[in-house]
Amino acid sequence: MQFLIHSKTIAELEYDGKTCLLWVVYKDGRVRSVPDVAPTLLMKIVSQVPVERSPYLMRTAI
C-alpha cells in the first residue's frame, strides 16, 4: 500500500503487508525502512494525517 503524506519532511509511506515492512520516503529523496510494523500501527500513523490530505483515506471513507 502506498500513502501520500503532506508533511514538511515526509513525502509518502509505502507498506508491504506480507513482510510488515514500512518504507518512509522523505521529500529530499532519502528512504528509510522500518521492520515489523503491525497493520494496526500503520493505520494509527496514517489516521494522524487529516482525511482530506490522504487520497487513500478519502477513497476508503467514500
Q: How would you sum up this structure, described in words?
A:
The chain is of the alpha+beta class. The protein has one domain. Helices cover 26% and strands 32% of the residues. It contains 2 helices and 4 strands; from the N terminus they run E-E-E-E-H-H. It has helices spanning 39-47, 55-61, and strands spanning 2-4, 10-16, 21-26, 31-34. A 4-stranded antiparallel β-sheet has the order 1-2-3-4, with no helix packed on it. Strand 1 (2-4) and strand 2 (10-16) form a beta hairpin. It is globular and about 25 Å long. 3% of the residues are buried. The mean pLDDT is 79.
Features:
62 residues; alpha+beta; four-stranded antiparallel β-sheet
**Mean pLDDT score:** 79
Distance between the termini: 18 Å
Number of helical regions: 2
The largest pleated sheet is described as:
4 strands, antiparallel
Q: How much of the residues is beta strand, in percent?
A: 25-35%
Oligomer, anyone?
single chain
Globally, the shape reads globular
